[in-house]
């Protein structure tokens, strides 16, 4: 009788390309990105950090609704997205709004989603994505379906779904991996292990030493990646995407990362479950700092560049908030109208009732 | 026209739709080479191939998620949940996800999915096979619940469901699968959704039911005829939403109503039917509306099911109560 667990757990080592000092420590896997690409990655991370800061401020002013902070997770979110193509289909969790924005969702619609206006979910044609999933893990089985559909259509694309460390405890997580594996469907299961599911630390979530190893049970190539290293995340995602579009099936990526802020802006207080020391330790590994160091060494990034991105982001956010403010108010009659393709009898009656109410 | 059982009519419907629309996909546990545990998908994989008709791993929530994902790629999935009780495993996928797709996406995406599942008592199954769980889905906006009572309706309603651009939960009563045959045209045809059907005309009392209870009502109506009571029997066919128009029209004629459901009494479709009638036609009623239902227990272990399930005698008793009120 042989216990393979020890061997499996011993096999997972965290994949890194760029260390905390901005040094390339893994030249074999240094992605083939042009200087412009590297600058664009930096721009997106800085922009998204500003968006996060402004979103938190707007939420505190009562000008934004549901919001899950993203700072700390930029490398995981944007590095993985940077490896995707327009035809790839994203099934995000609620913290994954940045990927949607860089996939083409207009910023004012992201704000309307946050405010609970249904227009925020009316994605423009060509934005291949679902709106953020609220039920933990529900999107993972759907990703297997999208991936199987992509395969049946013969498209050169993947379905990529995001969840967190807590999401890997759900039955749907394993079902989604297993279905995609059984059908050899082009799916990428992306786990952002940010150490806490609201307040529960990952060590209490599971006895597994890594979340990546959970993919092994379903027969998926699985990788643990430094989630604060945008180049490692990009390289890993690019690698599994290429495998998938070439017909080699799904894969799982766990990124080891951290959210600096609270779980959401709806009253979560992180000081109840983690220390400030812990947060400052993680901040030393910050993904923006790391890439900035590399770019500065290459003379590709200056303070002026950084400030321009910050100003641009602020300007965009201001315009988008204005556009969201100006968007027509949502009505119950609008919502009744979109329950079905054609209104059934019961809703026809209720439509009349609410037209009357809303005309007063 | 040929005489067909309900299961044959259901296979027929899927056969037509696989032929009619390349986007139709049929999948579930054992639906491939095995043809499904009730043989509903018999021969379909051989004819249409593994790309269109295929087995899934054994996980109902996964089947639900797979369906929605395929719908997002423009397919028209017709998944099978092997037995009704396994629906519990797929509740988020159905009520939390599929039913809400159009709404959640602000009408920019849809989920044209028809989830088929056998249900219903009287065939001595183990636990969690025979329950009537229509109420769980009927409470969820955005998805229809359709339950045929005859082979003819089963084929037409299933074709309509598959062609509909919104999701349908399609429940097939196991006792009706092979218990009788009906004239079923060989060609494709539709039966309108959201529309009840008067299965028997009468002027003295209206019996309203769906699924196997339609036959219980018809049997009661035959017996009542001997006592010169003419019962009208309405088959809801779609239990969510309810066709109030057909019901109210009948009530205005008969002034007396008994509502049947195989499900437990509490919080069921029958209660909803009764509320609709009292809101719309109370002044036409000569007696309280009575219900014939199962008791508020879990579906019984099979040795007790004959007593637990409502019978035509229960219906006759209630009819006599409303006639003699």
From TrEMBL, chain A:
Coiled coil spans: 303-360
Superkingdom per UniProt: Bacteria
InterPro entries according to UniProt: Alpha-ketoacid_DH_E1_comp, DH_E1, PdhA/BkdA, THDP-binding
Its biological purpose: The pyruvate dehydrogenase complex catalyzes the overall conversion of pyruvate to acetyl-CoA and CO(2). It contains multiple copies of three enzymatic components: pyruvate dehydrogenase (E1), dihydrolipoamide acetyltransferase (E2) and lipoamide dehydrogenase (E3).
Catalysed reactions, as listed in the record: N(6)-[(R)-lipoyl]-L-lysyl-[protein] + pyruvate + H(+) = N(6)-[(R)-S(8)-acetyldihydrolipoyl]-L-lysyl-[protein] + CO2
Name by which UniProt lists this protein: Pyruvate dehydrogenase E1 component subunit alpha
Subunit structure: Heterodimer of an alpha and a beta chain.
Cofactor: thiamine diphosphate
Enzyme class, broadest EC rank: oxidoreductase
EC number: 1.2.4.1
GO molecular function ontology, one term from the record: pyruvate dehydrogenase (acetyl-transferring) activity
Keywords: Coiled coil, Oxidoreductase, Pyruvate, Thiamine pyrophosphate
Entry keyword annotation includes Coiled coil: yes
GO biological process, one term: branched-chain amino acid catabolic process
Domain Dehydrogenase E1 component: 42-332
From TrEMBL, chain B:
Keywords for this protein: Oxidoreductase, Thiamine pyrophosphate
Cofactor requirements of the protein: thiamine diphosphate
A molecular function (GO) term: oxidoreductase activity
Pfam families: Transket_pyr, Transketolase_C
Domain Transketolase-like pyrimidine-binding: 4-179
InterPro entries named among the record's database cross-references: THDP-binding (IPR029061), Transketo_C/PFOR_II (IPR009014), Transketolase-like_Pyr-bd (IPR005475), Transketolase_C (IPR033248)
Taxonomic superkingdom: Bacteria
PANTHER family: PYRUVATE DEHYDROGENASE E1 COMPONENT BETA SUBUNIT (PTHR43257), PYRUVATE DEHYDROGENASE E1 COMPONENT SUBUNIT BETA (PTHR43257:SF2)
Name of the protein described by the UniProt record: Alpha-ketoacid dehydrogenase subunit beta
Organism: Lentibacillus salicampi
